[in-house]
Amino acid sequence: MFVSASTNDPNVQRPPAVANGQASTQPSSTTNKLQEIQKSPDREPTFKDYVRVFSYASKWDIVVYIVVVFTSIGAGTALPLMNVIFGQLVGQFVGYFQEPPTVSRSDFERLLGRQSLYILGLFLGRFCLSYVNKFSFRMMGVRLSSAIRLHYLQCLFRQSIHVIDSMPPGAAANTVTTTANTLQIGLSEKLGVFFEYNGTVWTAIIIAFTWSWDLTLVTFSLVVFLLVVTGVLFPFAIKGLVGAIKAEAEANAVASEAFSGIRMLAACGAENRIVARYTYWVKEARRQNQTMAPFLALQLGFLFVGLYGTFGLAFWYGTKRIISGAIQDPGVIVVVLTSVMMVVISLERISTPLIAVAKATVAACEFLTVIDAPQPATGTIKGPDTIATGDIVLNDVVFAYPSRPHVKVLDGLNLRIEAGMKTAIVGPSGSGKSTIVGLILGWYSLREQYAIPKTVKKDMMKAGPKKGEEKSGAVDRSVDGDAGVIAKEAEPPVQLSGSISASCVALDDIELKWWRSQISLVQQDPFLFNDTIFHNVAHGLIGSPWENDPEERKRELVREACQESFADEFIDRLPKGYDTEVGDGGIKLSGGQRQRIAIARSIIRRPKILILDEATSAIDVKGEKIVQAALDRVAQNRTTITIAHRLSTIKNADRIIVLKEGRVAETGTHQSLLENESGVYYGLVYSQQMSLGTPAQASTEESEEDLDAVPTRKTNTAQFETDVSRQEPRVGNRNLFNSFGRLLKEQRAEWPFYAATFLAAMGAAAGTPLQAWLFGKVLGVFSLQGDELRHESEFWSMMWLVLAIGVGMSYFCQAYISIYVSCRIGAIYKEQYFRAILFQKTCFFDQEENSQGALSSRISSDPKLLEELVGLNGPSS
């Protein structure tokens, strides 16, 4: 009977009596939370985030860390001790070769033998300590990185779907790969280098002050200068670094999203538009990296000016002290000078680990934003305290999505889904059908909503859109271009209210994991893992009583489920049967075949509730028939909820609920609802008949397809895809020299920059032999006396200054040009690399090595390796 007109039907919705004050209200705390969602909460990385990563270390990890910290310091201590030995040797050499000699031949040979043994002992000790700390730090870095990645994924999977939806596409994959690698580098060898050179610095300072405190103070003036220069330039470099990391993350998100929907992208012909979006963020990353170039180059140039200039200053002042008689042994000057030089060099070496730690701090913040995000409240009631075979009731539900808190999706919805019956929910697009599924599954909650903060720097928050950004289609991030949505954002957020219960128990009080184990879902576009058919179906046993059964028993259950879903008809025709690989996302199978495997996976656990969310809408009309037959079979003897656009699939439903604007407009059976020609359901049926043809025509078209014919056609498709997968990719004959030569040839426009870099590198490299030559001249000066000693010391001190300026300018030019060019070339090849992948044939993406994850990783890491090849490689890089 037609019941939609009855005033006693509790499912027929009426507008809430707002005027009478009967509308449900929400606590102010929830309102505030909803208002905060659109503010895009931000989180600034701090050093506390980096330190917190060590909380993931076990007791033995902490013990190992403590041990290797001391071994690192010990390895660093060995180098300054060499200065003492070298200074003593210099003093003995000067005394032995001057006229008249002050050291006898026997004393000289005895001292030389003893000092050689000391050098050998220091070498062996440093070698052993360095090996231990390098190996241990790397091992600990891997362990900590693995631990925080695991915890990150655990916390991410505990979040509500709306929280995951708030993250950029590909953000999670980028975090557990690229970001995790950055964090691991900052926790392993680089950290060991930091402690090692700290040991070198402090030991060298102690030795220098012990041998001559006044000469050490004079020499240390340049160290203070370098610290000031680094303190001024380093923040600017870090600012560019953070900006580059964020831009690269956006580019990786675009790439990951494109690879996940590559076939749809090709079908729409949107490759060039996606390339434009990707190129925008690549260019932004290049711009941010290039802003670091002058600051890093200045830092490197000043470093070597100070390094070589300190030699001249120490030599000039030390000679004055020798003339005045305050210093008797020239070896003192050598010990102090080499110790202070070691401090300068070690401070420069420490800058590289500091940069790695700064990157690791940003990476740790990326992990902790998800880990620290509030976990959704979950109940504790589960079987046998409750059952999943009772009615599901939605009472006066008002809901809006967190991403659009101003747009009301459900408006005071009252709905009852009766146990053991086939209930179909239909309605126009946007009426709230799939939203009901999300609420029943616990993807969304009627409690407070929140979003994961973004990791930013304060300075970045002040930056507005770049010039031309408003005109670029590549940066269009609007979810809705509709002016009505923009107008709604000026209104207060929708206040969530209402309740959802199952078997007379509030859904919020039921343990979410147990509740979901009672439900199976078949969606419009089923997802299959890049695994065999058997394992894809067997994944449905997770959380069921048969989860830990032997594989033989699981194979029996898989076969039964596939038979029930009609999937066995095409699986048995495959060469490898149930052990056939389905490809990335199941791409090696047709849509109907993927859908039947998804149905088998959903029913293998024998769920109490089966939800079919437009399970046949993505399949052609002919293929829909066999899938619908499978759905009708598996829907027996369980509560079934069907969301459908194709109304022909729900004719046999026990009850049909029609939604309109977030409320129930009608309820009844297919026949009873068709009796009301002014009803919403009748209008939907009429609209579909007009678009598909008359009912008679539709019936004729459907009758032409026999159930037995469908598997035969699908078998041909599967066989074709199997043949394609067997094709071997053709790889050209490439080697290092050919590839590098081609790179140089393609970048002919950059040859002038490479020539300038080459000349600058030659000038920088000449500094080391010139330094050795000058040092030999200095040792000869110590044998002079009086005015001749003073004159020669002033001359060679000026030569040290000239060498310092020349080498400093060479390093500045080399660093600036190489960083600038490497960023430029890296951006060019990133864009070309992405474009080349995007325009590959479809069979390219069917290969296992070209899965979405593999391509996302390669597009992120390969250009980085290229930048390292053509860019600055050295202590400062």
Automatic annotation (TrEMBL):
Residues 392-686 form the ABC transporter domain. CDD domains: ABC_6TM_Pgp_ABCB1_D1_like (cd18577). Keywords: ATP-binding, Membrane, Nucleotide-binding, Transmembrane, Transmembrane helix. This is ABC transporter BEA3. It holds the Pfam family ABC_membrane. Its main location: membrane. The chain crosses the membrane at residues 62-86, 115-133, 191-211, 217-238, 295-318, 330-347, 751-775, 795-821. One of its GO terms (cellular component) is mitochondrial inner membrane. Residues 1-11, 21-38 have a biased composition (Polar residues). Coiled coil: none annotated. Residues 1-41 are annotated as: Disordered. It comes from the Eukaryota. The keyword Membrane applies. It is found in: Membrane.
